[in-house]
Amino acid sequence: MEQQTTSLQPSGGKCHSDPTTRFFGKVQPQARLSRPAPCAWDGIPTTSRTVKQQLCGMAQSSIVGGTTRCALSIQKRSSSVQTGRDQQDAPAQPTTIVTYAQGAETGGMEHRAVPKHSGLPAVSTEYKPDAWEHQLALHGILEDFKELPDALRWGFDAGIPAIGHTYTPPNSPSAMQYGEELQRIIDDELGKGRYFGPFSAREVEALLGPFQTSPLSIIPKPGKPGKFRLIQNLSYPHTPHLGGMVSSINSAINSAHFPCTWGTFAVVCGTILDLPPGSQAAVRDVKEAYRTVPIRPEQWAGMVVRLPGDDTFGIDTRDCFGLASGSGVYGRVGDAGAELVRATGMGPVSKWVDDHVFFRILRPFLAEFNAKRRRQATQIAKAGGRQQIKSRVLYFGEPLATGKLREFDEDHKFPIRDLSGSSSRSTEDAAFTYCLADIDTLSDELGIKWETTKDVPFGQQFPYIGFLWDLEYNTVSLLPEKTEKYRAAIKEWREAPAHPLEDAQKLYGKLLHTCHIIPAGRAYLTNLERFMGVFGDSPFMPRTPPRGTDADLEWWDRKLSQPALNRIIPGLQPIIDCAAYSDASSETGIGITIGNRWRAWRLLPGWKSQDRDIGWAEARENLSQVLTSKFLETIRASSKGGGRDAAETPQQMKSSKQSMVSQKTEGSPFIQPTFQQMKTQQTTPQEEGTIIPHFSYQQYPSQTTSGNLSQTSTQSLPPQSCGSFAPTTPQYLAQSVQLLRGMQVDRSSIEPANKRRKTTPSRNPGLPRSRFNTPLGTAARSTGRPAPYADDLRPRPSDLRPHVLARDRLRLWRPLSARNTLDNNGVPTNLGDQDLDRIKEVLEGAWEEGTREGYGSGLLVFHVFCDQKSVPEEQRAPASKVLIMSFIATIAGAYSGKTISNYVQGVRAWHILHGVPWEMEEAEVSTLLTAAEKATPARSRRKKRTPYTPDFMVAIRSRLQLDDPLHAAVYACLTTTFYAAARVKEFTVPRLNAFNPEKHVKPSDVRIETDRNGFKSTVFHIPSTKAAQVEGEDVSWSAQDGVTDPEAALAHHMAVNDPPQDGALFAYRSGAAGARKPLTKAKFIEVLARAARGACLDPRQGHGIRIGATLEYLLRGVPFEVMKVKGRWASEAFRSYLTKHAQILAPYMQAHPQLHAEFLRITMPPPR
């Protein structure tokens, strides 16, 4: 006879009662009939989680009619190992260190047993418990892992609470979306005996008593098409249901009760830096790691899964993804396995969950390396040995200069052994202490299965925890697949206006991970950190991120789009105490002292506007201290070892509010202006490989101050002497010093007399002077034939749109209604067609030829669109707002957002050129263009230009024949544009017939200038540039060392080609007659690309020359603002191309000491 089940239907799930009559006893809460605990974890409550009635659905409530709680009568031996003690026992004394105590009974157990009358199969595992017990005892570490063999036999305590009543919510929608994959996974789990079933709810209750399922979800594995991962959402329900009687499984689990070691970024960096030369690493993953770990049967009631179909369930008996204790439960096995690897003499080895990295050293270094390990073992023991911080087990070593202790993931008590003679192996493997075969020998004995398809064999490059490590060059970089994954996450975030807490946490975690490679990125996480702090008790309600978050993510996207994200593996350097102190006062201002120098600034009236407070002043104080200290210390040490030591040595600074730099977490009191100061402080480029406590450093700026600080203190404060301070200056700073000096001196007073200035065109003095219709001196129009239209961009034939070159469409394609000679009232004027043509001729000059060509392409697409929509001519110009918006929407997703914007500008220019009104609602059009930018297809996104470098130019030179006139001109043009930081189009011409002496550089535009210190520069006057079409601009370079010297290259070109004084500077001889041709941009790029391929290098774009020049000068220590002047950058755009920010700060440390004092005087003037 069976009692009728009472079914409750909570939100999102079902709740079943417990039948009063059972065919099987419950394997759930038991009286004190189980065997004593084999171990106890000090610092963790030792009361058995299965005895203490802190239930998921939490009490023996009679809400389920007739539900009773009974214990299974058990014979002498238990069905599982119970970790912990009943409440009858005295509580353990709390401690912060995890230790293990031997239980009273250890032998005579049945292997993998559950009560015979339970109706369930035995606990099973792929591991070999007896072998584990033997190996742990053999190496003397059984005391450290005493509970492990029995846990492998009977199941692990995962902290899953006893279930008070049955609760079966539905699976997530993805379980239906990927139904076939879900069924395949379930069949596999059932086939391998890891799931028991299928059962109905009544059958499960009969076997286990009340049970609880957690929603299943299935997700594709990133980067593995066709592979899926099953996840149990054991955190559901997120809030208690049924009046608090049903809670999630994870809500009852404290992950700190399941600690294990983690091979973190810092740990692996330290390991690598300890390795002797020539060392190698291999990476292996444990196959289905979580699923190899059995869970004790009395906790299975919390691991039941809902299977496809009505009233169908399976009992999961293994560790799984989604369980709060999951990583720690498996981590216990992983820790024991890693320690046995070390005990066998292999290593060092680190792990991150199931990913293991094995290092090996060359045999000749064995004794020296083991001596280092012994010293470290002593330091670890002195620091207290095994420690636990939350769910992490770690070991501390020697104190670092930062005041912290070095972290390890082992105690170093086992030496590395020479196992090269233990079995046959290759010649390469024999040179090292062990090989993969030695790992396999131990793994086979223990039953550890590796995912061999993922093996990364021993070598000097290896992937681990999302990074690519290089032992040869001691570098670490972000894996390309991680880069793409993180950029996709940013894109997905930016497409939604609001987000729940989980979304913010996921994105934050990804970007925080990247900060190991881009430390400055921490400053661009402050808005996300603030955002995560606003959710309170409503984590699932989407909220709008703070203003500035999108700009931060734009910065991240630019960073992640760079071709290579890497850094020197950070080392363990001492910190220089440069006696730097600072303080801020809201009443007075800020002050800093560094050694025997000091400076003060007063705060101007009104400084507290725009939400500024004392936090802003303190941040400003710290920033000033950091920048000044870094610069002075770098100069001071620049004479030692070329300054390298100084550049790599962190500095210790003291502030009245030093703790402020770490207060970026939720609840931080600092407001936006303060965050901005902290961001400036932290986003300054860093030296590669430098570990810097609290601060990042940036290139030392000019001592001009912001609008809220005055360099004049409350008293006139003269700069203090630095005693015997005698800085030196590197050779390459000469030009930087001169540029700085030039910025502070009235250039008109030193302008060379021979500098050429733009003059009006010469005229015949015998003719009367004309002030009207003066010839514009534009280049002759091309007579070339236009290319055929593409099949999908063929406009309908029309007299209004002749087939002409793209750059001529703007002028020659006519709207039906254009500018005429009538006035605003429709009355004829005395103007004629030639006046209208003159207007168009002048207007056309507003756009450069390249711009007109792009606009012409857009005009073609616009008219093909109109043809497809059958838009009549009179509606194409003036174009209506809805027509332009439809044009944008139609081509969105096919072109990049930038291209679409350019096309719209082309249609606008066409209207302006022909006098047709252009009346648009700019807000709507602008918003639509923004949306089109987000729809840009991946294939249309332009990659960042790879910069040219001196080494790249050397490689190109090796493939050029410099006796060839063309090659001589190309190489001279390359070195000139590079060291002058000029645009390629400024020294080349677009076509052979396009040379214009009023626009292009000629030999007569070159001059030599010498400053007061005798430094020579070669100056090129560009008659017309994009920014200065009338006056033109000057660019210059100085002689360089090596084969990339532009002075030698230009002299060689002049000797070979002898270009005429009024012709193109880089004209070259061509043909048997030696006629000279101007160097076109296309020919220039063609020759360079051919040479690059000949040197087995990828060709680079022409714009990469200017980008590379900027990078090179910054690497030499030229300040950013100076480089903006030299490179004539009108915006901060050049920063997005710089791929070596960490090197740019290698400042001011080579030869020529006489210049450094002057450089210091210029960059740090006295207060006035």
Q: Which descriptors apply to this entry?
A:
1168 residues, alpha+beta, 4-stranded mixed sheet, disordered N terminus
Number of helices: 33
Largest sheet: 5 strands, mixed
Radius of gyration: 37 Å
Number of strands: 30
Distance between the termini: 100 Å
Low-confidence stretches: 1-117, 633-707, 709-768, 1139-1168
Shape estimate: globular
**% residues in beta strands:** 5-15%
State the share of residues found in helices, binned by percent: 25-40%
Average predicted confidence as pLDDT: 76
Overall structural class, as computed from helix and strand content, comes to alpha+beta
**Strands of the largest sheet, in order across it?**
24-21-22-23-25
Structure description:
This protein is of the alpha+beta class. Among the domains are: 129-470, no CATH class; 480-564, no CATH class; 575-605, no CATH class; 806-940, Orthogonal Bundle (DNA polymerase, domain 1); 950-1161, Intergrase catalytic core (hpI Integrase, Chain A). It is built from 33 helices and 30 strands. The strands form 9 sheets. Strands 24-21-22-23-25 form a 5-stranded mixed beta sheet, covered by helices on one side. Strands 7, 13, 14 and 15 form a 4-stranded mixed beta sheet that branches. A hairpin with a 5-residue loop joins strand 14 (392-399) and strand 15 (405-408). Helix 18 (734-744) packs parallel to helix 33, helix 27 (965-979) runs antiparallel to helix 28 (1046-1057) and helix 27 crosses helix 30. The longest helix has 23 residues, at 614-636. Mean pLDDT is 76; it is low at 1-117, 633-707, 709-768 and 1139-1168. Residues 651-664, 709-721 have a biased composition (Low complexity).
